[in-house]
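[step 3/7] fold_predict: job queued, chain A
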Amino acid sequence: MKPLVLLAAVGSIALLATAPPKPATRDGTPVLPRPELLRAVFSSVLPLAADYWWIQTIQAVGRAFTGAEYREAYYYGDLATDLDPDFETVYDFVAVGVPHHETRERWVNVDESNAILAKGSRRFPGNWRYKFLAGYNTGFLQRRYQEAGELFAEAGKLGAPASASSLATRFLVKGSELEGASRLAETLEETAPDAETRAFWQKRRKQIELEGILRSLDEAVARYRQQAGRQPENVHSLVAAGLISAVPEDPLGGTIQLNPDGEPYSTSEATRLELYETDR
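[step 4/7] structure written:
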């Protein structure tokens, strides 16, 4: 029996050692063998088959120039992880490797990246990196802010660095989910391991509250411009116009004012609680 197994292994290695022509495509998608067929043919050396498609994944990224060419790597990596679901490196590589920046405002293959990350999360539910990377994709590349905030929050719960939870609150605020951001900050404050961390989340809750106040003032300023045809001189102008009942108090102890463009701000914070986006 052992010689037969050895013979099968040697034969499989010989078959896998020589790279075949690039697989045919249909509608831009590689035509690949079914995982069930590969499991049946290479049952005794399945890790070798997974390694082969892993190599194809690397080569696809290495030779790619267009979004469609980068997308091919997703299909190879998906097949490799079908054959060996514990091949953790493939999930990470594909997730980072396949998104392609076509123009300043357009990324492609992000859905494929998120799909391999979701697959990795199902196999390794305790791995925070998959949630973190999915949050990055969803927030920065697809601009689905609330969903990104929830993904970063999940990454934080799985043990990601503190920056994940900080990003979660910013994305939730960006997605107008102020209540959710505040609840998350409150939970993190209550469970903080030390006084410094507790103080950070306490301040973040107040920053979120302040942002809610400033957004209400944004709306009041817009109505003032529409009614008066000019910028309000200060916050008291909004009170005088009946658009707000009183000058709101800053939970951080500063003074709320309007800049020359009519934008509300507080003297307690150099900037508003916003998401500062950069190109990847």
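[step 5/7] annotate
The two ends are 54 Å apart (CA to CA).
The first strand starts at residue 25 and ends at 26.
exit 0
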